[in-house]
Specification:
The complex is a heterodimer of chains A (388) and B (169).
Chain A (H helix, E strand, L loop, with lengths): L2 H11 L7 H10 L9 E2 L4 H17 L41 E3 L2 E9 L5 E9 L5 E11 L8 H5 L6 E3 L2 E2 L2 E2 L5 E3 L11 E12 L19 H8 L32 H7 L9 H16 L5 H21 L3 E3 L5 E3 L1 H9 L6 H13 L3 E13 L4
Antiparallel strand pairs in A: 2-3, 3-4, 4-9, 5-6, 5-10, 7-8, 10-13, 11-12
Helix pairs in contact in A: 7-8, 9-10
Chain B lengths: L6 E2 L5 H20 L2 H18 L9 H18 L1 H5 L5 H7 L9 H7 L2 H12 L4 H8 L3 H24 L2
Helix pairs in contact in B: 1-2, 1-3, 1-7, 2-3, 3-8, 7-9, 8-9
The chains are: A alpha+beta (388), B mainly alpha (169).
Chain lengths: 388, 169
């Protein structure tokens, strides 16, 4: 089998599967059927940009009273980033700071930006994120944008956008403490301190879900055909307990020959080699089909409620295994399972070649899978006036 | 870095995109969802999102990879929807309604559709969309090692299904 023959064969077998003219019309209608826009320069020529920035700087200077409140300090030899980050009380660093730096808050996380000038004369935008939450909140910056830089830092938005700013604040992972109030900083290079900066981004705050959405969905009508006890048994299963006690779970004990070893980090093949029962892996959808069929058979009187519970338990187990393989759940040594959101997020942000779009898609996927849940977000916008 | 000659369209050429990707995306979505009506909806959702997000596409991956990722996400949304799960038992309708009547058992299409969803995803992205393992991992949000493992398993399953007419020819 090779890719070309596979693709050709699929295309041949599905040659009648084409977008209908009606569907194409609908797509065009939904996208306004606007003609492709005339190509425009993505970036203005430097000279034009410099002129625009100069004009902007002049306007900002003239309307300084209306500026958000950030004032660039001049003549500083200190680089707050070189000092190892920003402290909770920036004035202690001796770095000239904005006189009225704004702060933003979302779901118990405070975002404290500041501005300074480093030894090289470069304008430095920095910030600190402080968590007042007691759980393992995560945050991500989206739509990061700095406008008004003459030289610019082309990688900056790409570096900060998406999940690059994602981290966990507080709590423990695998027994290791995660530092609280971790600081993040960024530098913005400018060619002239006479320029104004318009900084904007969205800080989104997420928390891990107590129960990832990989369980069964039972139709409401089942309530009418089963006893309340059975309804409770098929719906009250939580991810706090692995739904099959016949498989002794052992976490990351690869040196032990028995019992079977199930870990979230091993590949499925390793799991299969360790446990013949692991072949159920990947069967979540099929198991759900079996469950739905069992519900219908129960309704028709062909099986009893005990049989339904057995099928439901098997389906739950298959879903749980799927979730473990997908790194959404981890099986703990005590036989319980827990969300693997941190590991999943690490996988996401460790992809070096991942672009902002992919990062956003992964974030959305993690949210959709129930690994994390958005609890708040705040739009952050402020203007740094020119130094003149 | 300032550049004066870097140009990109502000909005996508939908005619080109539909002509270039429409059929293959529809077939991909059909095989992922096993339901042609939903597949058409997923493709429509995909193109709308491409239109909306085109300005933010920075070209760090290929256009094809980017659009495929959107399509896969659209399909995943449908697969996770209660409607799809309620109607999961009717998936076979697609085969009955859409397959050419002369299509024999043992076709690649049918073999692929028999695969569990997670294996179907990787085999289609690797062999039909011809994406690399790293690209598939990025799209699916899983480690590359897991993609490789699933590919090995999927190939093994397909070999069993297609041996008579495909591998022995």
């Amino acid at each position: 089998m090779n890719k070309q023959s596979f693709r050709e064969r699929i295309d041949f077998e599905m040659r009648d599967v084409q977008l209908t003219p009606e569907r194409i019309r609908r797509i065009h209608k939904l996208t306004d059927r606007r003609a492709p826009a005339r190509r425009l320069p993505q970036r203005l020529p430097a000279a034009v940009l410099s002129l625009a920035l100069a004009a902007c700087a002049a306007l900002v200077f003239l309307s300084r009273a209306d500026i958000f409140g950030l004032i660039i300090s001049r003549g500083s030899d200190e680089n707050p980033l070189a000092e190892g980050g920003v402290t909770a009380n920036p004035t202690e660093t001796g770095v000239p700071l904005p006189s009225a730096a704004p702060s933003f808050e979302a779901a118990g996380l405070r975002f404290l930006p500041g501005v300074a000038v480093n030894e090289d004369g470069r304008l430095v935008l920095f910030w600190q994120v402080v968590s007042e939450r007691e759980d393992q909140a995560l945050f991500a910056f989206k739509d990061f944008s700095v406008q008004g830089t003459a030289v610019g830092s082309p990688d900056l938005p790409q570096t900060l956008n998406g999940l690059e700013g994602l981290t966990a604040l507080g709590g423990q992972v695998d027994g290791r403490d995660i530092p609280t109030a971790r600081s993040f900083s960024a530098e913005v290079s400018v060619g002239s301190r006479m320029e104004a900066l318009a900084v904007s981004m969205t800080m989104a705050v997420y928390v891990p879900t107590a129960q990832p959405q990989a369980g069964l969905e039972t139709p409401e009508w089942v309530q009418d055909v089963v006893s309340s006890e059975t309804w409770h048994r098929i719906n009250n299963w939580m991810y706090g307990a692995f739904p099959d006690t016949t498989i002794p779970p052992v976490l990351k004990a690869t040196s032990e020959p028995t019992p079977p070893i199930l870990t979230a980090t091993e590949t499925p093949e390793t799991n299969t080699a360790s446990s013949g029962d692991w072949e159920a892996d990947g069967r979540g959808n099929e198991a759900y089909d079996d469950y739905m069929e069992a519900l219908l058979r129960l309704k028709a009187g062909e099986i009893d409620e005990e049989k339904l519970v057995d099928v439901a338990r098997a389906a739950q187990r298959a879903h749980c295994m799927d979730a473990i393989e997908d790194n959404r759940l981890v099986l703990l040594p005590d036989g319980t399972v827990a969300s693997c959101y941190v590991e999943t997020m690490r996988d996401v942000i460790s992809e070096e070649d991942r672009g902002p779009d992919d990062a956003q898609a992964s974030l959305a996927l993690a949210e959709r899978c129930g690994v994390i849940r958005l609890v708040g977000e705040v739009r952050i916008e402020f203007t740094v006036p020119p130094a003149g | 870095m300032i550049s004066s000659d870097t140009e990109r369209p502000a909005k996508p050429d939908m005619d080109r995109l539909i002509a270039e990707y429409g059929s293959s995306l529809l077939r991909l979505c059909c095989l992922l969802l096993k339901n042609k009506a939903q597949a058409e909806d997923a493709v429509q959702d995909t193109f709308i999102k491409v239109y909306e997000k085109y300005a933010s596409f920075e070209g760090r991956s290929s256009e094809k990879t980017w659009i495929t990722a959107i399509a896969v996400n659209a399909c995943r949304n449908y697969l996770r929807s209660p409607w799809h799960r309620r109607n999961a038992g009717e998936e076979g309708l697609y085969l009955a309604e859409q397959s050419p009547p002369e299509l024999p058992d043992g076709t690649v299409m049918q073999a692929v559709m028999k695969l569990p969803a997670k294996y179907r995803e990787v085999i289609l992205l690797a062999y039909y969309q011809e994406l690399r393992t790293g690209e598939i991992a990025g799209i699916l949000g899983i480690p590359a090692a897991t993609v490789a493992t699933r590919l090995r398993r999927a190939r093994h399953m397909l070999e069993g299904e297609l041996r008579e007419w495909y591998f022995d020819e």
